[in-house]
Amino acid sequence: MKRKPIILLTLIILLGYFSAAEEPARDRQPHSSLARPAAISDRTYNVLDVNKLGQYVSNIGQFYSSWNELSPTADWPLGSSHEQMYRMNVYVGMPGNVVQTRTYGQKEWDPVGGYHNAATGMLAVSDDTTTWPLDSANKAYWPVRDAQGNAVIRSHQDSYGVYRDLTNYLAVSDPAKRLNIVVHQTSFAWNTAFDEDYIILTFELINDTTVAKDSVYFCLYCDFDAGGFESGSEFADDRLVLDLDRQAFWFYDADHWSNQWNGLPWELGVVFLETPSVDSVQLGITDWHYTDNWHEPRNITNDVQQYWLMSSDSRLKNDPLWPDLFHGDNIHIDDPNLIRASGDTLVVFASSGPYHMEPYDTLRFITALVAGADSLDMIRNIDRIWEVFGSGYRIKAVPTPQVTGRAGNGVNQLSWSNAIDRTYLDPETGTNTLAGYYIYKTEDSRRLTWTRYDSVAVQFDATSDFNANAYTWTDSTVNNGYYYSYSVTTYDSSGAECGKALLAAGLNTVELRPRSDARSDTRKIRAVPNPYIISTSWERERLGNIMDGEPIRELAFVNLPPACTIKVYTIDGDLVKTLRHTNGSGTEYWDLRSDYNQMVATGVYFFYVSSPQGESVGKLAIVR
Q: Which are the contacts of 565, defined by CB distance < 8 A and separation ≥ 6?
């Protein structure tokens, strides 16, 4: 059965407008340095989490976790746990020699060190300088730079990693059989309202030898599962769309229903945006084949068959051992209409080739991973990707503010600076087109469902002095003891909104819990929520680590005196918990654990509060 890895969401940091820069000069040392042996510390990974499509990335040519160290793998919308990528891998092959990390007992792509901060052990991402490599002065620098040495960052969240085939399976006994292909892998992700559903992936293949290579193919192996890859055979009812005019393909669920999620599945696909040219013509997707997951060639002796599949060799088409690898009359391109109406357990090999590489020559492939609610949404998103790619990644993106918050008695207050009002310039008009800020609010513990609650028009201009708390916004429609999350996005004069993809987590999002002031009237003391219903939205799952660990359970006692003792008893009069309230406020929290640190059982309990101001007795219930 396909199994899903543990989810760990990382921090999100916003960036502003990014335009096309001149082609960057990689911070490459002489070619010989790239042959440095890979170390365990060089194998790195990270999560792209700046837009709605959460995605695992690594520097070994695979886009899913083999060791459950991080995920998600194609989680859309981010934080929903609706993952639809089981595997995606980079294949590069020549006749009889294919390098990849999908099969065999070892990974054939090996990380190249020096492109990330080994102390953090994370793949370099542009919005987290702690992941960047360090120079000789121990100063962090972005590994993609222009001719002047300036960092080239093209999106709200770039990633960068390098790998090569040091442990090529065929080279175990003969190192001369290594392809000696080095891959520089870059990704770009944005969080604007128009660009939150895709990630652009670039692969630059370098022939790191003095020997020319011929008949080289590049391939993406895609095992996507519309509707999820658990819950029995949920992954066994997928179908495919192939749109060669758009150089795209995507997976969708045949019955448009996910038993795993008890809801509608979304769709996931790949776009080939750029491939090398042969005779001045880009080849694009030259070979495209699907098969069910159980009939793909993947045993340890079949580099020959792997290459035959990538290159659509007729010897494999006619091989009775592999009856489900070619579909239709076109030997190079399968016909997805031949997939049975009820769907199947599908994987796709999408290839481009053949190519010739001179010594130290480079082949560049630019692709995109794209998500959509349905096929119409997929087409809209794919067309948007082509528009962005054609413009040289010129995306207009007003930055989002860094928001702070303060919880009071029956009130929550947000604050942010006027920095964007003073400094943002629309690259098309040269003026500040910021129109204002939208404020979102949710009581959903996982921050999946939000309501646009209010808006604030822009109030400052470039002549204004900087004020860290220039904007304040107050919400008095809250109850003490409950959690509320807020997020602030920006919108410009055209109505384009930025930062909405960061609602789940980010510097523009805060969580607040109002608490009551101390009271002398003990008759107002109460427990909230009451009843406490286990496994409902009140049970905050750990934000940023949704699937890891138990939920955070906290019942609040409100309207307390500044100092008191709270004792909780079972209905039979047994003492369960004693809380010493000394913080001077009117609120104290209980994690539903006894004095012996055990979770209390469901049922009815009594609480007794004693203080210099008087006593109070109340009843509370814990139910499932």
A: 578, 579, 580, 581, 609, 610, 611
SS3 458: coil
Exposure string over 100-129, b if 16+ CB within 10 A, otherwise e: bbbbeeebbbbbbbbbbbeeebbbbbbbbe
C-alpha distances out from residue 376 to 192, 267, 373, Å: 20, 10, 8
Helix (H, G, I), strand (E, B) or coil at 345: coil
Say how far residue 439 (Cα) sits from the centre of its chain. 23
Task: Report the pLDDT averaged over residues 434-445.
Answer: 92
Please tell me the pTM assigned to this model: 0.72
Domain boundary among 339, 368, 390: 390
> Is residue 15 included in any domain, yes or no?
no
539 and 584 assigned to the same domain: yes
Give dist(CA 186, CA 365) in Å, integer. Answer: 11
With contact defined as beta carbons under 8 Å apart, do 383 and 489 qualify? no
- Decide if 521 contacts 611 (C-beta within 8 A): no
**516-564: pLDDT as tens digits:** 889 888 998 999 888 888 765 444 444 444 434 456 678 999 999 999 9
Q: How many CB atoms lie within 10 A of CB 599?
A: 13
Residues contacting residue 531 through CB under 8 Å, at least 6 positions apart: 620, 621, 622, 623
CATH code for position 423: 2.60.40.10
Token couple for 452: 């646009």
In 333-477, which residue ranges form alpha helices assigned H by DSSP? Answer: 375-390, 419-423
The total number of structural domains in the chain stands at 3
Residue at 44 is within a domain = yes
| Residue 170 dihedral angles phi and psi, to the nearest 5° | -70, -15
Largest CA distance in the chain: 91
User: 88 Cβ partners below 8 Å, 6+ apart?
Assistant: 62, 63, 64, 73, 220, 221, 222, 223, 224, 369
- Residue range of the domain that includes 51: 38-390
Q: Cis bond leading into 562, ω under 30°?
A: no
What's the rounded Cα separation, in Å, for the pair 424 and 463? Answer: 12
Q: Phi then psi for 458, rounded to 5 degrees?
A: -60, 140
Cis peptide before 111 (omega within 30 of 0): no
Residue 107 CB contacts under 8 Å (≥ 6 apart), including other chains: 60, 62, 66, 101, 167
> What would you report as the CA-atom Rg of the chain, rounded to the nearest whole angstrom?
28
Asked whether residue 383 falls in the same domain as residue 329, the answer is yes
Spatial separation of the C-alpha atoms in residues 370 and 72, rounded to whole Å? 15
Percentage of the chain surpassing pLDDT 70? 87
